[in-house]
Automatic annotation (TrEMBL), chains A, B:
It comes from the Bacteria. Pfam families: Iso_dh. Its EC number is 1.1.1.85. The record marks Y142, K190 as: Important for catalysis. This is 3-isopropylmalate dehydrogenase. The keyword Zinc-finger does not apply. The gene is leuB. Belongs to the isocitrate and isopropylmalate dehydrogenases family. LeuB type 1 subfamily. Keywords: Amino-acid biosynthesis, Branched-chain amino acid biosynthesis, Cytoplasm, Leucine biosynthesis, Magnesium, Manganese, Metal-binding, NAD, Oxidoreductase. Substrate binds at R97, R107, R135, D222. GO terms for biological process: L-leucine biosynthetic process. Homodimer.
Length: 353, 353
C-alpha cells in the first residue's frame, strides 16, 4: 500500500517522540512492503514562533494531502497563566480539530501487566481494565457561540451547543465499537441539569433499538467521575460530549499506571489523526529521556483505524510488549533497571519489529 | 443559645439519616445548654408527590425562618431516564440553592484511619489526605440563560455565565479558608478554552495580592481530575465553578474510602445549609440500614459554620470517632463485625455525646 503521513511534531517532547514513531512506522513499512511518504509541518507554539499562527494554512494543507496525521504534543509554559494572551497554542489544536472535522476522539484505557503496580489504584481494582471513551471533539462549549465578555469586561459567558446530527454520528461510532467489544455502552451526560445533555440522552435512546445487541446505560458525569475510580472494570464503551470527555478521559488515563503509554485517535469522516495522550512535557524536552511508547502505539492505532491494517498494528503492539518485557524502556518506567534514551528505545523497536 | 433549625429530609434514605442527626443535635443542645427548635418541611420527589413542587414556597419560608437548614437527600428513580419529565426533583434542589443564595458549597475530603483500607487507592497515596473544595453553587451553566432547544427540537444549548462579583465572593472564601489551613489555594479552571474560566483566573489573580500568605496555583480541570487521584495530598483548598465542582467533588469523594461519611455545607451571605454528600440511595430506603454518619457530621459542620460553636462541633466529631473505634456502625462499614441499624447508631451517638 502507498501511504502519505503528515507529521506534526509540535512542542516540547513532541519532536523527539514523533521521531521514534517514524522509525517504527518505516520498519513496519519495510517489513510489510508498504511505501510510506512523510511530510512534516509545524503546529502549536512552534508554529506561532515560526509563522505567527499555531495552525497555519500551510500545515492544514499538509494534513489535507495526507491519509493520516501523526501528532506529537502542543503547549509551551510561556503561554500559560496569561489570561490575556492573544494567540494560544491550544487555539491551533482546536482549529485543527474543527477544520479537519475530527469529531470523535477515541481514548482506550487498558493495562500493561508489567506496569500495573504503578497505578495509584489497588491492583485488584485495575487488573484487566479495558474500556474506551468516544469523546465528541468538534462541538459543545469548545466552539459554541456566543462566547466572550460584556462591554465592561465584568461578565463572561460561553455557550454549549449540540445538534442531533453531531450526537448521532458520535453515538453510532460508540454503538459500533460496543458491538465489536463487550456490548455495553455508557452514555455520560448531565441530563438532570443541561438541555444539551437531555438532547444527548434522547438521541441515544432513539438510536438504541438499531443496536439491539448492545446494552445501553445512562449515567451522570459526576457519578462516572466516581465509578471510574471505584469500579473501572465495569465499563466497556463510553460516549460523551467534548468537555465531559476532556475531564473524564484524563481522569481515566491515570488508572492503568501506564499514562505515558496511552495512545489516542481523533477521527473524522475523511481525516484521521493519531497522538499520544501525554502533553508536551516541556521540562523533559531536548533531553532524549521522554517515553516514546504512547506515540508508537498511536502509530499502531493509525495502521488499524486509518488503513485497516491490523497485522501491522499488532506488530507494533507486539514489539512494544517485547520492549517492556526486556526492559528496553525510558527512565520513567525503568525502576532501577537500565534507563534507555528515547532515541535508543526507538532504534530498538525499529530493529525488532 | 437559641437555634432554629429547618429539617428537609427529602427522599430515599433522607428521612432516616436526618432523624439520627436530630437525635445527636438534641443531645448536644442538652449537653451545652442550647435551646433548639426544629421545623420540618418537604423537598424533592416527596414534595412533588405532596404539593406538586420539588421546592414549595412553604418549604422556602421554613428555610428563611431558620438559622440553619439540615438537608437529607433528594432523587427518586421514577424521575430518572425520562428526558421529557416536566418536573424533576433536581429542579427543586437548584431552585433552593438559588433562592437561599447558597453560593458556596464546601466539601472537605479527609480520612478516617479505620476506613482508609476501603479506599480504591493505595493506602500510601491516601493516608493523611486533607483538602477542601469550595464549589460555586448558584451560577455557571446550571442557571445561565438562554438554554433550551431550537424550534424543531434538533439543537440544544446551555449558557455558562459568570460575573466578577460571583467569582470574587467564592474566591474570598477560599482564600480565607487557606489562610487558616496550609495556605495553598488551587484555582481550577479551563482557561485555555473557556471565556468564563479566563475571567475566573483573572479575578483570582487580582485578589491574590490581598492574601500574600497564600500560595495560589492555577490548574486546568482535566489536570486536576488526574492529580486528585495521583497525588491527592498535594491539595489544600480548591476553588472552582459550579459544573467543574460537581464533577471533581464527586471524584474526590471516593478517595478517602469514607464516602458514606462525608459532610458538606452550602453557604450564603444569610442562609446556610448542611447535608451529607451521599444521595438518596433509594435501594436502601425504609430498611433502617443507611449510614447516618455523613448527616451527623454535617450537623457538626452546622454548629461550626452556622453558629461558630466549635466545641459542639468537636463533640460530634469525637462521638463519631468513638462509634467507629467501638464498631457501632451500619452494615456498609461493619466488615464482618456486628451491623447496627441506622436508628441504633443514632441512639448510641446521642447517648454518648
Ligand atoms: C489543550 C486543550 C485545549 C485540550 C482540550 O481541552 O481538548 C486538551 O486538554 C486535550 O484533551 O486534548
Ligand atoms: C442532583 C444534581 C442537580 C446536583 C448537582 O449537579 O449540583 C448533585 O449532583 C450535587 O452535586 O449536589
Amino acid at each position: 500500500m502507498e501511504m502519505n503521513i503528515a507529521l506534526l511534531p509540535g512542542d516540547g517532547i513532541g519532536p523527539e517522540v514523533i521521531a521514534q514513531a517514524v522509525k517504527v512506522v518505516k520498519a513496519v513499512g519495510k517489513k510489510f512492503g508498504h511505501t510510506i511518504h512523510f511530510e512534516e509541518a509545524p503546529v502549536g507554539a512552534t508554529a506561532i514562533d515560526l509563522i505567527g499562527d499555531p495552525y497555519p494554512d500551510s500545515t492544514h494543507d499538509v494534513c489535507l494531502r495526507a491519509d493520516a496525521v501523526l501528532f506529537g504534543a502542543i503547549g509551551d509554559p510561556k503561554y500559560d497563566n496569561d489570561p490575556k494572551a492573544k494567540v494560544r497554542p491550544e487555539q491551533g489544536l482546536l482549529r485543527m480539530r474543527q477544520k479537519l472535522g475530527l469529531f470523535a476522539n477515541v481514548r482506550p484505557t487498558f493495562t500493561f501487566p508489567s506496569l500495573i503496580h504503578k497505578s495509584p489504584l489497588k491492583i485488584e481494582r485495575v487488573e484487566g481494565v479495558d474500556f474506551v471513551f468516544f469523546r465528541e471533539l468538534t462541538g459543545g462549549v469548545y466552539f459554541g457561540e456566543p462566547r466572550g465578555r460584556n462591554e465592561q469586561g465584568t461578565k463572561a459567558f460561553d455557550t454549549n451547543v449540540y445538534s442531533k446530527e453531531e450526537i448521532t454520528r458520535l453515538a453510532r461510532m460508540g454503538f459500533e465499537a460496543a458491538q465489536k467489544r463487550r456490548k455495553l455502552l455508557t452514555c455520560v451526560d448531565k441530563a438532570n441539569v443541561l438541555a444539551t445533555s437531555r438532547l444527548w440522552r434522547e438521541t441515544v435512546q432513539e438510536l438504541a433499538p438499531e443496536y439491539p445487541d448492545v446494552k445501553v446505560e445512562y449515567e451522570f458525569v459526576d457519578a462516572v467521575a466516581m465509578r471510574l475510580i471505584q469500579w473501572p472494570k465495569a465499563y466497556d464503551v463510553l460516549i460523551t460530549e467534548n468537555l465531559f470527555g476532556d475531564i473524564l478521559t484524563d481522569e481515566a488515563s491515570v488508572i492503568s499506571g501506564s499514562m505515558g503509554l496511552m495512545p489516542s485517535a481523533s477521527l473524522g469522516t475523511v481525516n484521521k489523526l493519531f497522538e499520544p495522550i501525554h502533553g508536551s512535557y516541556p521540562q523533559a524536552a531536548g533531553k532524549d529521556i521522554a517515553n516514546p511508547l504512547a506515540t508508537v502505539l498511536s502509530a499502531a492505532m493509525m495502521f488499524d483505524y486509518a488503513f485497516g491494517l491490523k497485522a501491522e498494528a499488532q506488530a507494533i503492539t507486539d514489539v512494544v510488549n517485547k520492549s517492556l518485557a526486556e526492559g528496553v524502556v525510558t527512565e520513567d518506567i525503568a525502576e532501577g533497571g537500565k534507563a534507555y534514551k528515547t532515541s535508543e528505545v526507538g532504534d530498538w523497536l525499529a530493529a525488532n519489529v
